[in-house]
Design a protein that fits this description.
heterotrimer; A mainly alpha; B alpha/beta; C alpha+beta; B: alpha/beta; Glutathione S-transferase Yfyf (Class Pi), Chain A, domain 2; Rossmann fold; 4-stranded parallel sheet; 43% helix; C: Ubiquitin-like (UB roll); 3 domains; 14% strand
Chain lengths: 127, 295, 229
C-alpha cells in the first residue's frame, strides 16, 4: 500500500494524538462485533481504523466518532490490546482543535440535564 | 469509627444526593466515617484519551494533591465516573514521569504530586477491606425474594488496568446483593453502555439503550436495577420515564444506587432519597408492605 | 531606575512604548502622567468598581500579572496594557420570572461544564477570590456558596479574559448572588421592620425638616455630623 503525503499526515496525526499504532489492528472486527452503538453509526469501528490506516481524511466527516461514548467495550475485547476509543478521540480532537463544537452550546437546552452529563459531553464534544 | 478520605464528585452534592446520603448512613452502620475532602474540584467525569492534552489531567490530579495535603494515602470514591477518571489519571502520572513533571510545573501553587495517593472505589472497601460477612452482619431487613439486576455499566470494570472486577464477568455487585439477602439477576446487558453523555445531544440513542437495558432486566425478572453511576442513573431512570410516554407497553424497572439498596437492607430507610427518582423504586422493593410498615 | 529633576523615576512600557515616570505612582496615574487620558476604563479610583483592569509582565518574569490600575504602583521594567472591558456573554433573564433550581446556573451558562480546574481564574483575580472554587460550586448547583465566595467580585472580567474554557465567571457569580439574595437568603427582619416604620410615616417629620433647611444650614449639619467609627 502506498500512502501519499497527505494520507501520511492524517495517519501521523491520529497516531500522535492517540499514542496508538494504527497498523497494530489486523481488522478482525471484534471491536465492531461488541460495540453497542453500531446500529447508529455510519462506519463500523474497524472501518474507522481502516480509513486511518489508509490515511483517508473522509473519516473526519464520519458520524461514528461522535456516537462513540468511550464505553471501552472494544478496548477490553481487542485481541491486540489496541485502544480503539483513543483513536476515536484523536479523530474528534482533530476537529475540536480547530475551534469546532459538535454541540452548539448557544442553542442547547440544559434545563433538565444533570451536571455529569454536561461536563462529560462538553469535554468530548466542544473545542 | 474509622475515618476514610472521601471524594464525592459534583453529582453526589446535587442530582445524586440520595447516593451520598445513603452511603454516609450505611458507612456509619459499618463503623466508617466518610471524611469529605475540605476542598475539591470536578474530576472532569471523562478521562482524556489524547496523549498530549495534559490540561484535562490537571483537574483529577489536583484532587489527589488535595487528598495528599490532608495527610491521606487513599482516596475513596462512590461515583463510578469519578472513580474511573481519578484512577486513570493517577495511573498515567505514576507511569509517566515526564507528564507528571509537566503537570506539577503547571500547578505551581501546589506542592508537587508524587503519586502518593491510591484511589479506591467504595465497593472495593466493602469487598476487600470489610468483606461480605461484615456487610451481612449489618442487615436488619433482608431483601427476601427481591430480584435485583446489577448494572455494572462501563466505568467500574473498564479498562482492565484500573477495573475493580473482571470486565467480561463481573461479580462484585452480585455478591453485594447476595450479602443483603436479595437475589442477583443474571441479565445480558449488565455491562452494556447506556449511551452516556450522548444524552445531551443524541437523546434518541440513549432512549434506545435505556429500552434495551431496562427491558432486558425486566425480561430477566428483575424488580429493580442497581448502579454506581449518576449518569447511568439519569439515563436509565429519567430517560426511562420519558420512554414510557412514547412506549406505554414498556414495563418500568426502578433504578437505585447500590448504597440505597444497602440502606434499605440495613433499615436506614429515612435516608434513601427515593422521592427524587423518576421511576418510583418503592414497589420494586416491596417497601409499601414490608420495611415501611415496620418503621 | 534613574534620577530625573532630582526625583526617582522608573521605566515602564505602555503598550510597548517606553516612558519614564515618577516612582510610587499608581499605574493609572503613571498613564496619565505619560499623556494618556482615560475616557473609559476608569471609575472610582479607589479599588471598588473594577473598571481599570490591567495586565502586565515584569522584565525577566514569565508570569502574566493582573491587577487594578488604580491600586497598583508602577515598577521598573513593567510592560502593561489596560483591559477595560472583556467581552463575556451575559444571559438575558428576568429575575422575577426565573424558575430557580440547583440547575439554574448551568442552565443559563452551560459553558460552566467546560471548566478543567486549571485554576487560572483564581490566579488572575485582583480581588484574590477563590474563583475556581466558586465555579466548581456552580457546577454542583450550590448557589449559596457561589454567592458567598464571590461576594467581593468587582466584575472586572479578567478571569473571563483568561479562561481556557471561555466561562464568564463574573456574570455567573452575579446571577448566583441575585438568585441567592432574592430567593434563598433569609429575610432581613430589621429591614422589614424599618420599611414598615417608613411606610407608617415615622421619619416624615425629620425628613421634612431636612428638605426645608437652607443650603448653609445643611452644609453645617453635614460638616458636624456624627460618623460611626
Amino acid at each position: 500500500m502506498n500512502l501519499n503525503e497527505s494520507d501520511k499526515q492524517l495517519l501521523g496525526k491520529v497516531e500522535e494524538l492517540s499514542g496508538e499504532n494504527a497498523f497494530s489492528c489486523y481488522q478482525c472486527g471484534k471491536c465492531s462485533a461488541g460495540c453497542p452503538f453500531t446500529e447508529e453509526m455510519d462506519l463500523l469501528p474497524n472501518q474507522v481504523i481502516r480509513k486511518v490506516q489508509m490515511g483517508d481524511a473522509s473519516v473526519l466527516e464520519a458520524e461514528t466518532p461522535w456516537i462513540c461514548a468511550s464505553c471501552l467495550s472494544c478496548e477490553v475485547d481487542c485481541p491486540k490490546g489496541n485502544d480503539v476509543p483513543a483513536i476515536m478521540e484523536a479523530i474528534r480532537e482533530i476537529s475540536l482543535r480547530e475551534n469546532f463544537d459538535e454541540v452548539n452550546l448557544n442553542e442547547l437546552d440544559a434545563s433538565d440535564l444533570p451536571e455529569i452529563a454536561l461536563v462529560s459531553n462538553l469535554r468530548k464534544k466542544t473545542g | 469509627m474509622r475515618e476514610i478520605a472521601y471524594y464525592p464528585g459534583c453529582s453526589l452534592k446535587d442530582t445524586a444526593k440520595g447516593f451520598e446520603d445513603s452511603a454516609i448512613s450505611v458507612s456509619k452502620d459499618l463503623g466508617i466515617e466518610l471524611k469529605e475532602l475540605p476542598r475539591w474540584n470536578c474530576c472532569g467525569t471523562v478521562y482524556s484519551l489524547t496523549d498530549d492534552n495534559l490540561m484535562k489531567q490537571v483537574g483529577p490530579i489536583r484532587n489527589l494533591v488535595r487528598a495528599r495535603d490532608q495527610g491521606y494515602d487513599s482516596l475513596y470514591t462512590l461515583c463510578s465516573m469519578c472513580d474511573n477518571t481519578l484512577k486513570r489519571s493517577n495511573r498515567l502520572v505514576k507511569k509517566d514521569e515526564d507528564k507528571l513533571s509537566k503537570i506539577n510545573n503547571f500547578m505551581d501553587q501546589e506542592e508537587d504530586y508524587e503519586g502518593e495517593i491510591e484511589v479506591k472505589h467504595y465497593l472495593e472497601l466493602l469487598r476487600d477491606e470489610l468483606g461480605w460477612q461484615e456487610i451481612k452482619a449489618k442487615v436488619k431487613e433482608p431483601l427476601e425474594g427481591i430480584k435485583v439486576a446489577p448494572y455494572y455499566g462501563c466505568m467500574l470494570t473498564r479498562p482492565k488496568e484500573i477495573g475493580l472486577d473482571d470486565p467480561h464477568k463481573p461479580s462484585i455487585l452480585d455478591e453485594l446483593i447476595t450479602s443483603l439477602g436479595g437475589i442477583p439477576v443474571d441479565f445480558p446487558y449488565e455491562s452494556e453502555c447506556c449511551g452516556s453523555y450522548n444524552t445531551v445531544d443524541k437523546k434518541e440513542v440513549v432512549l434506545g439503550k435505556t429500552q434495551t437495558i431496562t427491558g432486558g432486566a425486566n425480561k430477566a425478572g428483575a424488580d429493580l436495577i442497581i448502579t454506581a453511576c449518576p449518569l447511568c442513573h439519569f439515563n436509565l431512570d429519567s430517560r426511562q420515564a420519558e420512554l414510557l410516554e412514547v412506549a406505554p407497553s414498556h414495563h418500568p424497572v426502578p433504578v437505585i444506587y447500590f448504597t440505597q439498596l444497602m440502606a434499605v437492607a440495613f433499615g436506614d430507610i429515612d435516608v434513601s432519597g427515593f422521592e427524587k427518582h423518576a421511576i418510583d423504586p418503592e414497589p420494586g422493593l416491596n417497601l409499601d408492605n414490608t420495611v415501611v410498615s415496620k418503621r | 531606575m534613574s534620577e530625573e529633576n532630582g526625583s526617582e523615576t522608573v521605566e515602564i512600557f505602555i503598550m510597548g512604548k517606553k516612558y519614564e515616570v515618577p516612582k510610587g505612582l499608581t499605574i493609572m496615574k503613571a498613564m496619565e502622567y505619560s499623556g494618556y487620558q482615560y475616557i473609559r476604563g476608569v471609575g472610582c479610583r479607589g479599588g471598588f468598581c473594577g473598571a481599570c483592569a490591567t495586565i502586565y509582565r515584569l522584565e525577566g518574569d514569565y508570569k502574566l500579572h493582573t491587577d487594578l490600575a488604580c491600586q497598583t504602583t508602577v515598577q521598573d521594567g513593567m510592560y502593561l496594557t489596560q483591559l477595560p472591558f472583556t467581552p463575556a456573554g451575559r444571559e438575558n433573564y428576568d429575575l422575577e420570572e426565573l424558575e430557580v433550581s440547583n440547575n439554574s446556573l448551568l442552565d443559563l451558562y452551560p459553558e460552566l461544564a467546560r471548566c478543567v480546574s486549571c485554576n487560572t481564574c483564581t490566579k488572575t483575580c485582583p480581588q484574590d477570590l477563590e474563583v475556581m472554587d466558586f465555579v466548581n460550586e456552580a457546577i454542583r448547583g450550590n448557589i449559596k456558596e457561589v454567592a458567598e465566595l464571590s461576594f467581593d467580585c468587582i466584575q472586572c472580567g479578567l478571569c473571563a479574559a483568561r479562561c481556557p474554557a471561555e466561562i464568564p465567571h463574573h456574570h455567573v457569580a452575579q446571577l448566583a448572588r441575585r438568585i441567592y439574595g432574592k430567593y434563598q437568603a433569609p429575610d432581613s427582619e430589621h429591614l422589614e421592620k424599618r420599611v414598615e416604620e417608613i411606610d407608617a410615616g415615622q421619619f416624615d417629620e425629620e425628613l421634612d425638616e431636612l428638605v426645608n433647611l437652607s443650603k448653609e444650614d445643611l452644609k453645617e449639619r453635614y460638616e458636624n455630623r456624627e460618623i460611626e467609627a
